[in-house]
User: Fold this.
Amino acid sequence: MITTFELSTRIIFGVGSISSLNHEASLLGRHALLVTGKNSVRRLGILERAAFLLKEACIQTTLFDRVEPNPRSSTVDEAIALAREKGIDLIIALGGGSAMDAAKAIAFGLACEGPVWDYIKQGEYPEGDFLPLIMIPTVAASGSEANGNAVISNWEKHEKRVISDSRLQPKVSLVDPLLTLSLPSRQTAQGGVDIFCHLAEPYLTAADDAPLRDGMAELAMRLVTEYLPKAVKTPHDLQARTQLSWLSTIACSQFMSLGGRSGGMTMHGLEHALSGYYDIAHADGLAALLPAYMRNLYPVRRHRIEMLGEKVFGQTDGIAAVENWLKKNNMGFSLKELGVSEAKIDEMAAAAIVMSPWVKNHPGLLDKRVAASLYSDAFN
Assistant:
């Protein structure tokens, strides 16, 4: 088996690393589109800090602050039109995974000639270079700062789709744990669950054991389980925030594939249908699905589930260990508690298979019937 490793993003990590924004941006463009959400970064003063640094570097800045928690293709199209009107030559994301995914989709869409969703749905990727991207995460969760992937929703069609292109790999990511200190406990816990699932899914679905790959994932999962409760309980615990920021960046990067081919993110594919239909927080959907997902895997990946239990939680019953961990972090949900209608399960199952075609790589069968059964298991 041949493994190709390439991480072209320059990652500047550490307390105060946002101060590098003026220099790094000045190397990449003269007019930046600053992409962010509607409230949090402005409320916390982070937006003003970024704007000041860009002004200090004599970089003209156009703000786009209308990104939703599950970024919509119609919103991305609005940002693309604005970027064309202003002559943007650099895109900077400031926020959580939604802001970073939207920024990538904007860069993608600027190379397209029509609505971005048409290209995303058909898998038609435009030719040529994309505008350079800078990522500044304010949440330890998605890991979008270290990869070329983005997830975009079409709310009218209740679909979520993934863009994956090495040209969307950020040129620079400034990972500053200080920016996560004011994140409320609820969002902190959601971010930790997202990180854990990024590590657990490929670990559980892998077809074989690989000492380096498995060891890195086991260590990273143990660190998530250690530091997430500390950050939830004491939001200003900088050590805990720093470790979670490291884990977020590493979990979705190519580093986790070193040592042997890993499994797939098939539960993420199932969750996309949930948040595509109900616009729920991505991590809440993952938390509701994870125990049922592990029960589905047990007949074909019992060894991997028991390994996770022993190596991460110190107990053989990995499913019970994960369920208890979710509950301890107030993330033990059912789909019913998230407002999902049982009557929609079959429809969502069919949609998940279509919008996330990689679920066909799930160990064992994962068709519409099995997906519906898994949703039903997670419902109560």
The chain has two domains: 10-179, 183-379. The first helix runs from residue 21 to 26. The mean pLDDT is 96.
